[in-house]
C-alpha cells in the first residue's frame, strides 16, 4: 500500500487493530488539554468500539508500579480479552519487542492508536509504526497531555510523518460505513451514550415518537 492509496483506503473491522498506549490513572490526572471527564469518556468510547467490533487489541502500561499508575480499570473491564503488556523501561512502546510482536501477529496493517501522553506515549510509537509501513490512526480526543500547545506540536509532528490524526467518532463512523450494517444500531447507541451533543439529537428524535 503506497502513495495516495494508503490515505484513501478505509478502516474496516477486518483490517484494523486497536492499540491503547499507557492509559494509566496517574498520567490521566495530569492531562489538561481536554477536560479529564470528556477524555475518559472518549477513551472508554474507543474501548467499547473495539469490543463491539471484536478488534484485536493490545493494551500497554509504562512503569505501572511508579507514579504513572496502573491501566484505567475500566479498560481492563471493557476489554478483558486484550493482550496486556507492561513495559518497565522503553519509553517508545514500539521499542518493546513484545508490543511490536503483538501488533505483527494480528497480520493487520492499520493501527487505531491512542495514548497518554499524546506527545510521547502516542506520538513516538505512531511515527515509528508508520516508518515501518503501518497505517496509523492517532485518535487525538482519546489521548491527552499537559496542555493544548504540547498537543498541537505533537499533532503537527505526527502529520508531517504521515500519521492520520483522527477522532474516536470519526473512526467509529468510518468503520461502520452504513447505518444499516449489522453493528450499526449498537455503534449508534455507543455514539449516543458517549457524545453528549449526539445524545441530544437522539433524544429529540425519540421524543417525537420515532424509533
Automatic annotation (TrEMBL):
Gene3D superfamilies: Isochorismatase-like. Residues 21-169 form the Isochorismatase-like domain. SUPFAM superfamilies: Isochorismatase-like hydrolases. Pfam families: Isochorismatase. This is Isochorismatase family protein.
Amino acid at each position: 500500500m503506497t502513495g495516495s492509496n494508503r490515505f484513501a483506503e478505509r478502516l474496516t473491522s477486518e483490517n484494523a487493530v486497536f492499540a491503547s498506549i499507557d492509559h494509566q490513572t496517574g498520567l490521566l490526572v495530569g492531562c489538561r488539554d481536554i477536560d479529564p471527564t470528556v477524555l475518559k469518556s472518549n477513551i472508554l468510547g474507543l474501548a467499547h468500539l473495539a469490543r463491539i467490533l471484536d478488534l484485536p487489541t493490545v493494551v500497554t502500561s509504562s512503569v505501572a508500579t511508579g507514579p504513572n499508575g496502573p491501566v484505567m480499570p475500566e479498560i481492563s473491564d471493557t476489554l478483558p480479552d486484550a493482550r496486556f503488556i507492561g513495559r518497565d523501561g522503553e519509553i517508545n512502546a514500539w521499542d518493546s519487542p513484545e508490543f511490536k510482536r503483538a501488533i505483527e501477529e494480528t497480520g493487520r496493517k492499520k493501527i487505531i492508536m491512542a495514548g497518554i501522553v499524546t506527545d510521547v506515549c502516542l506520538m513516538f510509537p505512531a511515527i515509528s509504526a508508520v516508518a515501518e509501513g503501518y497505517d496509523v490512526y492517532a485518535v487525538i480526543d482519546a489521548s491527552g497531555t499537559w496542555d493544548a500547545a504540547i498537543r498541537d506540536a505533537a499533532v503537527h509532528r505526527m502529520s508531517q510523518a504521515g500519521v492520520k490524526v483522527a477522532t474516536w467518532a470519526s473512526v467509529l463512523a468510518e468503520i461502520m460505513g452504513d447505518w444499516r450494517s449489522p453493528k450499526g444500531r449498537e455503534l449508534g447507541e455507543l455514539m449516543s451514550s458517549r457524545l453528549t451533543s449526539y445524545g441530544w439529537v437522539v433524544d429529540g428524535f425519540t421524543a417525537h415518537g420515532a424509533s
